[in-house]
Amino acid sequence: MLRAVQVVVDEKLARPVLVGRPAVLEKRIERFGLRLTVGEHFDVVNPSGTPATGDYWTSTTASRSGAGLGPVREDQMRRRHTLIGAMMMHKGEAAAWICGRSARTSAPALRRAR
After folding, report:
1. What is the CATH number of domain 2-112?
2. According to the model, what pLDDT value does residue 110 have?
3. 93 FRET partner, CA 20 to 30 A, in 19, 32, 59, 85?
């Protein structure tokens, strides 16, 4: 995923917003030898320290209950970055969403806003 962010920055396609802990992102950027700097090339939403996470949780719970689904616990919102990304798209705070590999995602996925 970070290599994709490097391409987006290099090609000046967008200003990415990454969901994750800044220290972990910086460590991975260094490990992969990328030319990215937090705040200069992209912004970060830290799921552990962002007040917006509570708002995303409230909105997710309301959306799910309206669809007849059960609630999402607030701690799930902080741990599952895809939920935060989905809510950022839903609220118009992000124009696109790139998901990397995880235990639940076998291949990268790209979703575009309509």
Report:
1. 3.40.50.10950
2. 41
3. 32
